[in-house]
Amino acid sequence: MVSLLDRKERLIADSRSAISEIDRTTDIKRKREKASSILYREFVERGCPVIPVILQDAHKKTKLPIFLKGMTWTDFRKDKPDPLDHLIRGITGRK
Predict the structure, then answer these.
(1) Which among 19, 41, 17, 42 has a CA at the least distance from the CA of 94?
(2) Phi-psi group of 73: left, alpha or beta (phi > 0 → left; psi -120 to 50 → alpha; rest → beta)
(3) 3-state DSSP of the chain
(4) What is the pLDDT of residues 53-89, one digit of tens each?
(5) The model's pTM
(6) Residue 93 above 70 pLDDT?
(7) Distance between CA atoms of 75 and 38, rounded to whole angstroms?
């Protein structure tokens, strides 16, 4: 039987992008720790995009952790540019 960890590792290995969601309940300290984890390093080392996604209910003064600030991020609190279109373009790499 394949363990949950084995399945997660396979998904990470097969994925070409990742998102990091931020909402009003996000613990930024925990997000910083997660951002420096093996999961994120794996994507960055392979040149795969990691896309911070700020959800509609995130606090207005939400600040991205330093690790995520340099990434192209999507803010669903704004209408323009269309956040869903922006996210899809980030995931697919299409302009």
Answers:
(1) 17
(2) beta
(3) CCCHHHHHHHHHHHCCCEEEEECCCCCHHHHHHHHCCHHHHHHHHCCCCEEEEECCCCCCCCCCCHHHHCCCCEECCCCCCCHHHHHHHHHHCCC
(4) 888 988 888 777 777 777 888 999 999 889 999 999 8
(5) 0.71
(6) yes
(7) 25
- Token pair for residue 63? 């600040």
- Find out whether 50 and 44 touch, Cβ atoms under 8 Å: yes
Which residue is it, tokens 């984890």? 37
Tokens 């600030």 -> residue: 69
32 — pLDDT class (breaks 50, 70, 90): low
What does the mean pLDDT of the chain come to?
Answer: 81
**What is the amino acid identity at position 77?**
R
Can you read off the two tokens belonging to residue 31?
A: 């997000």
